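Hey, resending since the last one bounced:
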Amino acid sequence: MKLALNRRGWPSNAFRTAPFAPSLGDVFEGFARALSSEPGTDHTPLNVWETDDKYFVESAVPGFTQDEIEVSVEGRALKIAGKKSEESEDGLSYHRRERSVTTFERSIDLPLLVEVDGVSAQLQQGVLTVELAKAAAALPRRIEVRS
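The structure tokens again:
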């Protein structure tokens, strides 16, 4: 079997056939994302689950207050964003300051439409929980079969 080589002399399909390729790709993608993001920008982790009539989205946002977080819904898209600015203390001369502004933004597409009036958000101990009621038109319903 002859391997096709790329211009650097590496096998062109080496990463695609390796059993660890997906995890290696994730590492490179995360590294590229970190290099391309603005300083002070975070990627907050999410947990998403559903019941028969609601979606729940949970996000870790430690150190943020409810006034620093914005939650919005448009169509099937949920957007969670936050911005936190730290005040400078008088008389201090910083040599390096990377924590002056922290921002994050996450947007996810939900499988079904939600009722905009049925969306609520609660912040407790650094965890934001968003509850979204599924739109009535999107809920499954039983159709009676008549003879």
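The radius of gyration is 23 Å.

Sorry for the duplicate.
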